UniProtKB/TrEMBL annotation:
Subcellular localization: Nucleus
Protein's recorded name: DDE Tnp4 domain-containing protein
The organism's place on the tree of life at top rank: Eukaryota
Sample GO molecular function, one term: metal ion binding
Main location class: nucleus
One Pfam family of this chain: DDE_Tnp_4
Keyword Cell membrane: no
Start and end residues of each DDE Tnp4 domain: 12-161
Species of provenance: Stephania cephalantha
């Protein structure tokens, strides 16, 4: 969520831009790599827009988000588990802090999957921490027309990528964006869209892949534990 000035919103009704935290914002969808670089940014959506709706828009655009063949993106629980977008198991421990401390190791296949998922997806939280430390204008609502505010996100994302490539020693203290992470993980809009039969089958296939992956991970851990005894 990026704060915006309410009076900068075009139109008479700004309620669509008011997010679940009660302030006006734009919702920004990003994809990143493990080098903490943006590979896709879609800005300008209303703060109240559901993540799954924004993702659908990103995939439908002519120059939208592309998923390489045979690959997938890790997403949080704000998104449904679907083809090429792998979400964690809901109702199961997920955040890294949930597994910190003695005796808090994963106890089931689903918990192990979620732990490893969280380790990898932590890259996007670190990216936003660096991004907001570097471009402090996004900590408050910038006093520009909304269109400029949306474009400002894109411009700064490009600058961030340049600095990551050319000035790797120019590091910033990371401020983990935990509020957004916790809020998005707590809510999924399963009823946003009416799924076609094909989409339903794709969701089922994605769930089967996730279950299979979790089972294989757990089996590998059992093999290692047995070899240690």
């Amino acid at each position: 969520m990026v704060p915006i000035f309410q009076r900068m919103i075009v139109g008479n009704d700004s309620s669509n831009y008011r997010n679940r935290h009660g302030f006006t914002s734009q919702n920004v969808l990003v994809a990143c790599n493990f080098d903490l670089e943006f590979i896709y940014v879609l800005s300008g959506w209303e703060g109240s827009a559901h993540d799954s709706r924004i993702l659908t828009d990103a995939l439908s655009r002519r120059n939208g988000l592309k998923v390489p063949h045979g690959k997938y993106f890790l997403v949080d629980c704000g998104f449904p588990n679907r083809r090429q977008f792998l979400a964690p198991f809901r109702g199961v421990r997920y955040h890294l802090s949930d597994f910190t401390g003695q005796g808090r190791h994963p106890e089931t296949a689903n918990e192990l999957f979620n732990l490893r998922h969280a380790y990898l997806r932590n890259a996007v939280e670190r990216l936003f921490g660096i991004f907001k430390s570097r471009f402090t204008i996004f900590k408050t609502a910038p006093p520009f027309p909304f269109k400029i505010q949306a474009e400002l996100v894109l411009a700064c994302a490009g600058l961030h990528n340049y600095l990551r490539k050319e000035c790797r020693s120019d590091e910033f203290p990371i401020e983990l964006d935990t509020e957004d992470a916790l809020s998005s993980d707590s809510e999924e809009d399963d009823d946003f869209e009416i799924l076609s039969e094909i989409q339903e089958q794709q969701r089922e296939n994605a769930n089967q892949l996730r279950n299979f992956t979790a089972t294989e991970m757990w089996s590998d851990v059992d093999v290692v534990n047995n070899n240690m005894h």
